[in-house]
Amino acid sequence: MTEKTGIMICGHGSRDQGAVEEFGSLAGHLAKRFPDYEVESGFLEFATPVIRTGLDKLKDRGVNRIICVPGMLFAAGHVKNDLPSEINSFAHQHPELDVRFGRELAIDSKLLRAAQIRIEEAEAAANADQGEIAREDTLLMVVGRGTNDSDANSNVNKVARMLWEGMDFGWAEVSYSGVAYPLVDEGLKKAVKLGYKRIIVFPYFLFTGILVNRIYRWADECGEAHPDIQMVKASYLNDQEDLIDCFADRVEEVLLGDNKMNCLLCKYREQIIGYEDEVGVPQVGHHHHVVGVGTDGHGAEDHGVYHGKHGHHHGHSHDHSHDHAHGHSHGHDHGHAHSHDDKS
């Protein structure tokens, strides 16, 4: 049988139409990178097409090998649990297909370059419009999405540290848009006390959406309250060329069988401080009630704000945190095994 390969890009989903369009554009970029492969994209929740629709389209076009790539920066509940649940369910129903699960984008030199470019773009625009301020007088605020997974949250700190040292900023701080502490507004309240002339707020996000808009709103409010400090809003990553390169790398890793997910600090595999009772939690998806409900601009992507340890919060339209405290017992082989293996 002739081998025909398809690529399935798996996103979280958003009620923000702009975010959905930007994610769709990513699929177009990857289709250009892999002209011999069929490419589809889909979402876990809130937006259409859903992941199952994309997988069915690939099957209907005669694809017999499907490479599923998470369109997510870090491995928290969605990458460790919800996506494998969706993909394994489809693979179980189609044993004739070779379905493989790639790893998240993770911390990568290409993504650091993409981040550097976005920060430098904002810095150059601010210098031109408001006068130049030296980096030693600038604080960089790196904003992560925020999850219930301390390993994923800690990656934001590593990114911030590498950008801080690599770009010679005077200082760097980390905050989160939801679930984890500190939130951006609290983080900025502390940052303004450190005496820096400029604060660059950089959302370490792939695409726009309700959470990015919230980050920018908090930055504006802080800037209005402290007119003596220059508040600069950097762009999220979006379709920066290095980001597209990183996605292409994740596809190539699966094709080459070099697809290793970090298990060392996974709370579903190891006993991590504060999450000891989550080792070996069964793999079950959590998005059935919001799969494909579509964009409507009402803000249901807003997965709540931090309210105590382990992400207990309010404001999430379907009452659970952004990266959920349920997981699966996953082995060292994360996705280059055949699709029947529930350890993907």
Description:
The protein is of the alpha/beta class and 344 residues long. The protein has two domains: 5-106 and 241-314, 3-Layer(aba) Sandwich (Rossmann fold); 109-233, Rossmann fold. 36% of the residues lie in helices and 15% in strands. It contains eight helices and ten strands. The chain has a four-stranded parallel beta sheet, with helices on both faces. Helix 3 links the parallel strand 3 and strand 4. Helix 4 packs antiparallel against helix 8 (241-256) and helix 6 runs parallel beside helix 7.
Short précis:
With 344 residues, the chain is of the alpha/beta class.
Terminal CA distance: 25 Å
The radius of gyration computed from the alpha-carbon positions, rounded to a whole number of angstroms, is 20 Å
Number of helices: 8
Please report the first level of CATH classification, the CATH class of the largest domain.
Alpha Beta
Q: Helical residue percent?
A: 25-40%
| Count of extended strands | 10
Largest sheet: 4 strands, parallel
Keywords for this entry:
15% strand, alpha/beta, 4-stranded parallel β-sheet, Rossmann fold, 2 domains
Write the layout of secondary structure elements.
Layout: E1 5-11, H1 17-33, E2 38-43, H2 51-60, E3 65-70, H3 77-93, E4 98-101, H4 109-130, E5 138-144, H5 150-167, E6 171-176, H6 184-191, E7 198-203, H7 210-225, E8 230-233, H8 241-256, E9 305-306, E10 313-314
Parallel strand pairs: 1-2, 1-3, 3-4, 5-6, 5-7, 7-8
Antiparallel strand pairs: 9-10
